[in-house]
Write a structure and sequence with these properties.
transmembrane, elongated, transmembrane helix, CBS_dom, 4 strands, mainly alpha, CBS_dom_sf, 3 domains, CBS domain
Length: about 375
C-alpha cells in the first residue's frame, strides 16, 4: 500500500516538473538572443512609425510573450504568422471595444480578455499573448479612450508584423525554420507515411493537439518513428555488415566521357571519387552527369554536346567538377539504424563508408533493403 502511494506521489510530482526533454544551452541562447534582438528592433520600428510615445503604449508587454513563442517555440502552431498577427490584432480590437463601452474595471478587464479569446478562436488565430493585448487595453482606459481603435493598428499590428518578419529572418540565419512546414505530398521520405492531410488533421483533432503540433511536423514525427522501428528490426547490424566492398571507383581527373562510359558499363547510379591512395573525395551520381550534359554553365561550341564537356576556359570538365562532397557518410561501426534516415532523406541513394578518410565500402538503398529482408526472414517471430 505504501509503495503504491509513493508511486502515485512520484507520478504527481513528475507531472508538474520540467519537460522530460531538456533543451540544449545553444538553443536556449539562440532563443534568448533572438527575443532580445527582435524586441529591440521592434522598439526602433515603433519609435519611428509615428506612434505617440507619450502614452507609454508602444513596446507593450504582450510583445514579450509573443517573442517567447516566435523565437523560443517557432514550430508551434500558436507562433505562426497568421496566429500571431491576426490573433494580436483582433484581440486588440476586442479589448478596445469592451474598454470603450464598459466602465467598471472589475468587469471591463475579464470581458476584454474573454472577447479576445472568442475572436481568436473564431478567426482560427489563437495566440496566447493576444489575451494580454486585450488585458493591456482594459487596464489603460484613459489611453485607449484617446487612441481608440488606432491602438489595434499601431502599436499592435505594426509591432507584431515586425516581430514576425524578424523572427523569420533570425530563424533562417540560425538554422531553424519559421514559419513552419506546410504539408506536402511530395515531402521527404520520412513524411510520406500513407496518410493524407485530412487524416493527419483528424488525428490531431481527436487527441486535442491541433494547437500544439502542425500537420507537417506530425507527418515527420510519424515517419521518423517508423524508421526508428525499422532500425530496431535490423538488430545489431552495422554498416560494415551490409556495405558493398568490391567497389568501382574513379579518380578526380576522370572526364565526363569516362564517367558516362563507366555508368553505361557497370549500370551503377553512383561512382565514388578517390585519390590514388584511396582517400575519399566525393561521389558522382548519374543525375550530376545528366545535369551537366543538359545545361548551362559550360562553354558552348559548334558541337553543343562537346561544348558542355568543357569549362568556360576551354579545359575539360572532370569528376572533381561534378562530384557531391556534402553527402552524409558512415563508419564501419555505424548502426544500420543511423543509415536509414541518411538514405531516406538525404536525397542520395548511396552512403560511403569511411575508415578515417579512406573509402572502405559503400551502402546503397539496395544493400540496406536486402539486409533488412534477410534479417526479417531470419526472425522467428515473423510469420
Amino acid at each position: 500500500m505504501a509503495v503504491r502511494v509513493a508511486d502515485r506521489l512520484r507520478g504527481a510530482l513528475q507531472s508538474v516538473g520540467p519537460s522530460p526533454s531538456p533543451v540544449s544551452l545553444r538553443e536556449a541562447v539562440r532563443a534568448g538572443a533572438g527575443s532580445a534582438l527582435g524586441l529591440g528592433l521592434v522598439g526602433l520600428v515603433l519609435a519611428t512609425s509615428g506612434v505617440d510615445l507619450r502614452t507609454g503604449l508602444f513596446l507593450i508587454a504582450p510583445f514579450g510573450a509573443s517573442a517567447v513563442l516566435l523565437f523560443g517555440a517557432p514550430n508551434s502552431p500558436l507562433a505562426q504568422p497568421w496566429s500571431a498577427v491576426v490573433g494580436n490584432t483582433v484581440s486588440a480590437l476586442a479589448g478596445v471595444a469592451v474598454t470603450l463601452v464598459v466602465s467598471p474595471g472589475q468587469l471591463r478587464i475579464p470581458l476584454a480578455v474573454g472577447a479576445a479569446v472568442m475572436a481568436m478562436v473564431a478567426c482560427r488565430a489563437v495566440h496566447p499573448p493576444g489575451g494580454a493585448v486585450a488585458m493591456t487595453a482594459g487596464l489603460s482606459p484613459d489611453v485607449i479612450g484617446a487612441l481608440g481603435f488606432r491602438f489595434a493598428l499601431a502599436p499592435v499590428a505594426v509591432g507584431t508584423i515586425a516581430l514576425v518578419v524578424l523572427a523569420a529572418v533570425y530563424a533562417r540565419l540560425t538554422g531553424r525554420r519559421y514559419p513552419y512546414r506546410r504539408f506536402d505530398d511530395e515531402s521527404s521520405a520520412t513524411a510520406r507515411i500513407g496518410l493524407d492531410e485530412n487524416e493527419l488533421t483528424d488525428i490531431l483533432d481527436r487527441y486535442s493537439q491541433s494547437l500544439n503540433l502542425g500537420v507537417a511536423d506530425l507527418a515527420r514525427l510519424i515517419g521518423a518513428a517508423e524508421l526508428q522501428a525499422a532500425g530496431h528490426r535490423a538488430g545489431p547490424l552495422v554498416a560494415g555488415d551490409v556495405m558493398s566492398r568490391g567497389l568501382v571507383t574513379v579518380g578526380p581527373d576522370s572526364t565526363l566521357t569516362d564517367l558516362a562510359q563507366m555508368f553505361d558499363t557497370h549500370r551503377f547510379t553512383s561512382l565514388p571519387v578517390v585519390t590514388r591512395g584511396g582517400r575519399f573525395l566525393g561521389v558522382v551520381f548519374q543525375l550530376h552527369l545528366v545535369s551537366r550534359l543538359r545545361g548551362g554553365s559550360a562553354q558552348r561550341g559548334s558541337d553543343r554536346r562537346f561544348g558542355r564537356l568543357l569549362r568556360r576556359d576551354g579545359t575539360v570538365l572532370t569528376a572533381a567538377d561534378v562530384m557531391d562532397t556534402t553527402l552524409p557518410f558512415a563508419a564501419p561501426d555505424t548502426p544500420v539504424t543511423a543509415l536509414l534516415p541518411m538514405l531516406a532523406d538525404s536525397g542520395c541513394d548511396a552512403v560511403p563508408v569511411l575508415d578515417g578518410d579512406l573509402l572502405v565500402g559503400i551502402v546503397t538503398q539496395t544493400d540496406l533493403i536486402a539486409a533488412l529482408a534477410r534479417q526479417t526472414l531470419a526472425d522467428p517471430l515473423v510469420d
